[in-house]
Amino acid sequence: MKLNIKIVIALLLCVANSKIIFGKDFYVSVNGDDKNTGSFEKPFKSLEGARNAIRFLRNKGEVNEDIAVYFREGIYIFRRSVEFDIRDSGDEHKVLFSNYENEKVEFVGARELFFEKKDMKLWQTHIAASSGEPSYFEQLFVNNGNVYRAKSPNGDELYRVDKVVQKVINQGNSRIPLSANISIFHDESLFSEKDSIKAHEPPLIVLFHKWDNTKRYLTEGKIESGELLFQGKGMKPWNKFDDHSRFYVENFFSALDSPGEWFLSQDNVLYYIPRKEDLNGGSKFYIPTTDKLIYIKGDCKSKRLVQNITFEGIEFKMTGYKMPDTGNDPFQAAANIDAVVTVDCAENILFNRCLFSKLSLGALWFRTSVVKSEVKNCLFENIGATAVKIGNISVTNTNDPGNIISNKNIISNNIIRNVGELFPSATGISIFHSSDNIIQKNEISNLKYTGISVGWVWGYKDSKARGNKVIGNYIHNINGKYLSDLGGVYTLGTSEGTVISNNVIHDVESREYGGWGLYADEGSSYITFKNNIVYNCFAGFHQHYGKENIVENNIFALNKKYQLKITRIEPHNSLTFKSNIIYSNGVDFFEGNWSKAKIKSDNNLYWDTIESNLLFGDDDFENWKSKGRDTNSLVEYIKVSYNEEKFLKINNKRLLNKIGFKTIDTRNIGVDSSNKWKTN
């Protein structure tokens, strides 16, 4: 999508005492020079060069119109993050960084790698440090697909934990031990002598437990006893490793056994088993040069926000990550993981028509005090953590007049897929301590945890996540092999004015429990869930506990374990449930305490395609109604079908009118059909 107002004014950086010429744009080329004037004929070489030129002109007071910087086609290698601060703010005149016409512009945090020795079965090369870069890395990228560090078992398979023994070294003052030795016992037949695990490699264990993920370097692996040992912080009492947990072990040489796997030894020799496409030629390999690409930061204390900067048509690709020696502790939604592009203390920042791909951290974070900024028409794929985050995960000095909660941001018309590649508990989009944001018309798919998460307060304490709108998103195919306790849309805490509406959610699964289309977790209150279509999930709707939520005019259909659940019984009204369609295929309508909790339930339509003697909790329908539930609701046959978008729909105006159900228009759900990059 083009900018509504064409930004065509740019500046030439001239020698001292020469006159600034307006009416031309800045240009950047991989073959340019940052000492050039930035003209079409003499372009700059880098983003930093263009930024510095604009700073120079601002400092001289010679910027009096909008500025456009156009990048010519090429791969721009970053060896560190490029920072923008208050000196770069377009306070009065906007700044655009864009690809030139339709040329392919890649901002890349990696350099190309060439293998020295090649045969049909194994390639290898020695890695030498380049320009001060470390020779050790944990990611390898290829231009035509994905390759993976050697692990066992291969693919999506996981080993099962048999037993866990924790020996606390230092408890400290927390419920979580400061340090402990932990032994994971497993079936000793999983690893043979040829699969010897050597601490000097160093191998790491990747554990999946409930909604969390933990990574630790192993100190020892005893093949004969089936014991894997590691050290670090102790287990969280509320989410321990146990015999329900699963794991794999990564980064040991004997696990190198499948095409597309690689291993980097401690003496800096890279081994790789080639794929068919590698043997045919055309594959290009890259190793990381930096973990981050862009950082925009204003001065929050003085309320001086960086303003009016746009990135358009840029591809942000291939950045690295090195796990600390202490490993990665479990953290819900991978909320603590940094992003490749981070914005703090800024206003009117726009990312439009950009690609974010093969990034080892999260992609984009509107973090502290970011307002009225936008991400639209972008594609996010193969992201290490969360694609887009809004707001900070901590709120400090809330009485400080300089503290601005991130608010009024828009994330719209983006495709987000294959996220959580390194941090599986990551989400597609997360809103933390942030208000009045709009998340609309995005398609989110193929991840391991939650699609959209809103809120960051557990229980009924004050929350800043108010007035957020999650509207018209298409969320589907959450992989249930890894984690539990997740949802298509997940909410936390008191959230006055928050609306979850007109979303289509299907095929949300979990490994053991959960997998809800809509999940109102701890303290979720004053939220409206309306006009959503939820089907083929493990379950439709779950409210852990909360106050005065409204669940209205939704379709919960053909979910696999049950349709609706409430966990905690509370003295107040938990929710109002009205004018919904509940369509089952032989599984229970209700689970947990739905029949006991305080609910105002009426004007709903229930049907089961298999069961004729329908139960509402332990009651038949008449006894259920005699208790004041669903007095005007119906149990009647209704037919479901699918429209051209493969969205579930129900057409029966007579019955729908009886319960006051308004037909849900699905034409504006998901990304605009005009986008050629829309997924199947």
From TrEMBL:
Domain of life assignment: Bacteria
Gene3D superfamilies: Single-stranded right-handed beta-helix, Pectin lyase-like
Domain named Right handed beta helix: residues: 407-567
Pfam assignment, any one: Beta_helix
UniProt xrefs under SUPFAM superfamilies: Pectin lyase-like
InterPro entries assigned: Beta_helix, PbH1, Pectin_lyas_fold, Pectin_lyase_fold/virulence
Protein name: Right-handed parallel beta-helix repeat-containing protein
Species this protein is from: Echinicola arenosa
